[in-house]
Fold each of these.
Amino acid sequence: MIPPIPSLEDYQVSPENGFLPAEAPLSRLPDPYYESWEEIAGDLHNLITSKKIRRVVEDLPQLSTSRLRTEAEWRRAYLVLGFLVNSYVWGMEPAQERVPKCLSIPFLKVSDHLDIPPVVTYAACCLWNYKPIYPAGPIDLVENLMTHVTFTGLMDESWFYLISVAIEARGAPTIPLMLEAMKTARQGDSLTVSECLTMFAERIMDLRELLGRMTEQCTPHAFYFRIRPLLAGSKNMAEAGLPNGVLFETGTGNEEYRQYAGGSNAQSSLIQFFDIALGVQHRPTGVKKDEPPIKVDQGHAPPPPRHNFIEEMRSYMPGPHRRFLEHLASVANIRDYVEANPEDPTLTTAYDECLRALSSFRDKHLQIVSRYIVIMSQESKRRMSTVAAATSPANPVHDIPGNPLGLAKGEAAKKGLKGTGGTKLMPFLKQSRDETMEPATGAWSKTSSKFESYQARSRNITPLSTPGSTPRSSSPINGFAVRSCKVNDFEDMPTASRIGVGMAGDWENDDVGGLCHY
């Protein structure tokens, strides 16, 4: 029996908001019992800057999670505790590997309830960390959004999170749209499938333009040196001061060190939804299409397992969203349907348009990564050289203005730190982009003229709706200029200059797996 198409309400997915909550996240836990958590969360910037964060956290009372009543309250608790834990671990030097019971016990219980790892994830930073300034206004308009909690108090940090929130909101209608496409593909309705795919491609191009707005309010310098270090996880962070990961103290005597990747937009269920819906398949970094398995000679140890980072990042999603994607993967049929109907040019062209749009979205992200991470990593090297020359007993490294917190510090930064999950960032992102086009079916996919017309009109995209339904209002972005570097400027850089660096940590060229973006 063919499995049914997933029902959104079974997986806490909203037809209107997608993977964002159906109602805006709480600004504060309503029970005064949790006020001590909220007070620290609202003052993280000052506590980190004044180096008081650990003392204040250690003075917290031991609070129970028994007074959390609704899912919205559990999510708020996860957000607050996650930011407190990362501030405690990375907000002062050296990094702190032991998390005190006052944070550990409730954070582990909250994470277990939500079926999500105890670390600052994409869900904490973005999905559950926004508020519409005007409640009746659109949440896909970034100017109408504000964050609840940040580490730095900078607009740059808020903007970094809110661009992702707006992408989630604007991409939300594609979820019921593509479920409708799968349903009609089962019925052999090629026309409706084609219509759905055409609207899907247009919306992805709209998301590409929205992603390009990152540069408007988030500077590369603020991101790389101020925000990124505090988003780090505990995986592959030995040279940053966490050789074993972190230990959550519970008082049971059975505690073990844990290692988690840091917050990453690769943990976005929406982007993985796009891939699954279109039948795009990703391989471990470095593995080519149709590459035969490596043969193991007798008497030699087998090669280390290849790491599929995208699949790993699914474990950092809220449990219901992860299970939705698993269900979706079991019923996804669009690629098979298109391949079974090669004589239908309308269908194959619409499908290829979707692949080109998603590939272009990933191209835009490559530009941003190049600007915010690759270039800034070179500045970091120059800065550390200056720091080394200026260091003296009277002027230690940590007192030099601009020295990044936590991760990018002192001698470890010179060695090239491992990131929260350790991927070769640029090779991974370029491979993900290239894999997006592999299912393309028609000759049209080899050209770009029609695709470029989609880019041109995506700024004035029409409201998206499922065929036969009432269009959902949209908020197109007009009249802004996005200045960004070209992807190819960095694809040909020498290997030594292309040290892989992730969103929340530095990367070594021989690492596998890791933190990335889309």
Note: The chain is about 45% helix and 0% strand.
Amino acid sequence: MSHLIIEQGKGVGAEVSVPSAGMKFGRSPANDLVLEDPAAMLFHGRFFFKSDGSLWVTDFGAGEKTVVGGIPIDEYQLKSGDLVEVGETAFRIINTTQEDAVAPPPAPPAPVPVPEPPPPPAPAAALGGEEIDLGFKGGRKTRSKPQAAVEATPQQAKGSLMHRLMQVIVILLVLGVLVFIVPQLLEMVEDTPEVVVKKETMALSYERVQADTRNIFRYYLELDEKGNLSMAIDDLKNNRHIQKQKKVEETVMLHLAVSIDDAGFFEVDSDYAGTSQGQYDLYDIAVQRNRRFQQIKVLNREPPAEIKRTVSVIEDFALSELGISHTFFKDNAKLLELAEEALNLGGARYAERDVRYGNLAEAIRNYSEAMLYLETFEPKPAIYRKASEGLLRANTERNDRYKEHMFSAEQSIRLQEWDAASKQLRILSELIPERNDPRHDTISSKLLNVEQHLR
């Protein structure tokens, strides 16, 4: 069942199916959908299904944002007919149904009609009966008393007085109780301790081991409740050992917890184990969210769809936060080839920095990609040094240009030259397209204010 069709870029007309485990896309060969598009990021984004069967696309925070319907997105629910643009490639959504989607529940039965209450009885006058005088009419009373009626006796008058006296006593008792009880209730309310809402907690560990008679590869990721993220990678064959740490923001942890829930991790209720001659292939995932904890191991077996989605979520998170993924551990010759390609592309964009303002940002991105491919190399090859020098040179020039154009923009704002200010701020938006750069927020805020004056 196809979900996408390529409308622009290489492979126009080709139809693509999104598997239940989701599909990462980008220029790197490690992606499920490899884009031969120089404008796309190494790891650009991912198509995936949520637990309700809806099709979504997420952006990995790329400089070149994923665009849906002409609007840059971070995460977006797709519908048939949507156009998803990734760099110079465009996909048309032709189907959003998951292959193993569950049929919707039957509609509830229609409510049983309730009969209307009967109308009230007609007044006595309408029925032809004698009109009763309640004593509110003026003038003399014309209707004579019935024979059964008699004058009130002294005993009846005494009873009526006692009844009224009892009513007064009851009212006084109620007032007395209120005077005594209300202050105590107010004191109890003041002494009631504040209800403290406990914040959500999140922790996880993820271990991936691939071993055979020639090599042992181990990837271990751990995130504790305080947001301390650590990673260790050991590759015995290539003698590579990497360790990284980072402090993760609470909002990022909450987003990760929700994504793991949506992947269906807590719906898996048992481990999976198989046998394989001369190989050891392990997935070991443990997640604790608030008071809920679950650990699942998959050994020498194809993981179920829920585990595949969970692994993809965790590995994408590690790549975003630490800048490295175990999928980079390919053959050294292939990594060198990819790094050299990114280095050459960065040099070409830097040489054309005066042709288009955005070329300088693309050069920075390409130099960073080249260094990322070589992150696990020890000692670092010459390409890494060239990429590092190119990155420093491009960043320095971009910082200088940022100061120059921001000075011109602020001067135009002070002089209320709104068209000139808007032009300078749009140039700055091309220079600093990365949303995780604090300068991007400054530019966006100023541009929004200027555009209000142009309306």
Note: The two ends are 47 Å apart (CA to CA).
Amino acid sequence: MNILHEEGICRKPWRDRLPFGEGESGRRARDSRPLFEIRSLVYRYPDGLTALKGIDLTLLPGDRVALVGQNGAGKTTLVKHLNGLAKPSEGVVRYKGDVLEGPHLRTARLEIGILFQDPDDQLFSNTLDEDVAFGPLNQGLRSREVEERVLSALKKVGLEQFRYRPPHFLSFGQKKRAALATILAMEPQVLILDEPTANLDPKQEKLFQDLISDFSGTVICISHDLPFLYGLCHRAVVLEKGRVHHDFTMEELVASRPYLRDHGLDFTFRLSCCRDNGDPPSRDPVHTVDALTVNFPRPSGKTEEHGKANGPEPLITLRDYSYRYPDGTWGFRDVSLDVATGERIAIVGENGAGKSTLLSCLAGILEGKGEYYMEGKPVSGKVRKHLWRSIGMVFQDPTDQLFCPSCWDEVAFGPRQLGLPKSLVEARVKESLALVRLSGFENRVPHHLSAGERKRLAIAAVLAMKPQVMILDEPTSNLDPRSEELLCDILQEIHTTTLLISHDIDIISLLCDRTLVMHHGRIIRDYSTTDFIHDGHLLTLNGLDYTYKNACCREILRLQGGA
């Protein structure tokens, strides 16, 4: 029996999604009417780099297509051609039989919705209400119908209570849902999703899965999260170096572990229950409450007491520290915390719990109220302005902090601001690039790197400053499995005091010894990572219940012959 059915989770049969009726006649009608026809598509960036190299692909009405491949394979570039955001250098893209240009392109854009990786790219109004209404208004709808669509879309994504809130005051997960609402309000026929669940807690990830499963049109989804895709899609198109390498059913893709491994897509290195030709199990635990009670690895160098720093004086101390946004909303309240030199601390909690806001205050980006001490000295005024010298932060999206023309200049920027001599700047740049496996990238343009390379470059830029504390906000988001594994290996070699935000239990268990649990802006638990992993109640309370994803994982392992 299908494990997903055993757990009350149903992947709808392929024929149940056919828009022209069930059976062979419906399939023939469907197959005779391509939705997208992509022929000999080539795309070159202005600098001459060829991103797509002769793509031939047909997408049908009602398709649920997973577009997968390593970072830099060309996935995002390809989907930008499906609604005219990018123009082919060579070849042609047809939608409903006609080339995407002129009046037909304008019509197509009203029918094709695209959700970008970064929701800030499509949230730009003063209130969420205005953002969601923008699309229907531009469709020429009357005010009453616009009002109905706005309310319906916000209710679907669970944000109706935030209708009149400025989008930039929302958490990242809330912004993701808000961006989806702006698309759903237009009632599109095609939904294109670029890493829709990146940086979401499992509860919101499941909400996205349910919303997309209920969508009656065509879905094209880019993601590195194969368990999520397995629960959503039936077809998998693999891109490699700008070409379509293979066009599978989803079951065929996930069942072939050698293929996944050869193409950098093998996520099963994370799972302790995974076996490969008799090899010992992976070092990582599985994503489930019931399976987390066995063989959980305790990382090295752990402290047994938490909430109290080791040694005579903590590196960082907070006492009754709070932050309130300009609209009066609390980011977090009454946080008290000690951080010892050398600790690796994970901060977990649901989207909107206050994690990023807390770390932004520690880095001096935001200023809260309460007591903040660094090495026993109060942090305020001039001291806060100079925290960048001792606390380095890597944002969720590394492009937010990459602005120099070359990788060398990017990593050298910080040391130069410190006024270091040229020889020391050069030494730090070489050392930092080598540590993150980017030696030889000195003259590359940062924004031409893959997502994994940009993430490592941002870490190198922080490390070159020799900070006392490194803050990582969702370090593995948007990375393919091979890049993710490489980044984890790199982070294990870095011995700087580290504060890490993640929803990923595997990453937390691998990199951190201590875990702070935030809920509704407060720290409700401060204990060892092992104790956190075994606390099933908190896993559910904080949106970290992996029941659904684990069911998908076990079904995939069954297909691979590993369960």
Note: The chain has 21 helices and 20 strands.
